[in-house]
Write a structure and sequence with these properties.
There is one protein chain. By secondary structure, this protein is α/β, with parallel strands linked by helices. It has a domain of about 200 residues: Rossmann fold (3-Layer(aba) Sandwich), CATH 3.40.50. The strands form four sheets. Strands 2-1-3-4-5-10 form a six-stranded parallel beta sheet, with helices on both faces. A two-stranded parallel ribbon has the order 6-9. α1 packs across α6. The radius of gyration is 19 Å and the shape is globular.
Length: about 300
């Protein structure tokens, strides 16, 4: 199998990892924002026509959840209109689209893990724009796999993991929301699962699985629980030789104080329950991501190697 694969959002958390994990499947072409501006969907479509990829793995997105509340037009363009144009072009050429979406398409009112066919009802502009992207892709008629994931982090980029460690060097205790539930998912785990999905889609041909699937870590926690686990895992690796000061510096904070959402108001409302069921993905592709605690430990070990 030798495919021509286009990865968008190449400097993002997932996009950066994808360039390595997809390489065994063929030629990987990486797009950054400086090369192709997703604020201009027609520029994206023109770029696709020049490359003619077999697969587009779309990791580009407007992910500033709170900023989107005051910038809905850009969020809608990047998260819906641009993916829609990609899907239209691939419908014309017969290519496959792998697109990442979010747990924020749900309102969080369900007490059990969300399944793919549960009713969507996003609470914020970001979630609405991502849902619109899903809908435009489905309406295009292209071969597609939409992978909804949750609480994505990595050892690079701007994310909760690095924010917690930064704050823990500045404060003696951290106050974190304890009534929002989800599954923290390492960007590398997402990137390592993706080529398996792509390969199976091409091996199965016209009968390959398609549609929307959930791809998130096993287990669940709260933001407070995630932060506490970060502190504990970091301390357990304190004796490892770190390559940089960022991953070797001591922490002041040793504990996390749980607080309700009402004490940490943000411009964008978040769902109380973001836990996703991954059963459909397991049945279709034989894929299950490790528990979120295992992923976190591996991520931090990777950081200090």
């Amino acid at each position: 199998m030798s495919l021509r694969i286009l990865v968008t959002g190449a400097t993002g958390q997932v996009g950066w990892q994808l360039q390595r994990t997809l390489a065994p499947l063929g030629e990987v072409i990486a797009w950054t924002r400086s090369q192709v501006n997703f604020d201009i969907p027609e520029q994206v479509a023109d770029g696709l026509k020049q490359i003619s990829p077999d697969v587009v793995v779309n990791a580009a997105a407007y992910t500033a959840v709170d900023k989107a509340e005051s910038d809905p037009e850009t969020a809608q363009t990047v998260n819906a209109a641009a993916p829609g144009r990609i899907a239209e072009e691939l419908a014309r050429t017969g290519g496959l689209l792998i697109h990442y979406s979010t747990d924020y398409v749900f309102d969080g009112s369900k007490t059990a893990p969300y399944q793919e066919d549960d009713a969507t009802n996003p609470l914020n502009v970001y979630g609405k724009s991502k849902l619109a992207g899903e809908q435009q892709i489905a309406a295009s008629g292209c071969r597609h796999i939409i992978l909804r994931t949750s609480w994505v982090y990595d050892i690079r980029g701007k994310n909760f993991l690095r924010t917690v460690l930064r704050l823990a060097r500045e404060k003696t205790e951290l106050r974190m929301v304890a009534d929002q539930h989800g599954a923290p998912t390492w960007a590398r785990a997402i990137a390592e699962a993706t080529p398996h999905v792509v390969a199976q889609c091409f091996k199965a041909g016209p009968n390959s699985p398609h549609g929307t699937f959930h791809l998130s870590a096993a287990g669940q926690t709260t933001w407070a629980g995630f932060a506490q686990q970060i502190l504990e895992e970091y301390e357990s690796l304190a004796e490892w030789p770190a390559d940089t000061g960022e991953w070797g510096a001591p922490l002041l904070a040793k504990r996390v104080v749980p607080i309700p959402t009402s004490e940490f108001l943000t411009p964008a409302q978040r769902p109380a329950n973001s836990v996703l069921s991954n059963e459909k993905l397991a049945l279709a592709f034989g894929l299950r991501l490790p528990d979120w605690k295992i992923q976190l430990r591996l991520a931090l070990q990777d950081a200090v190697r």
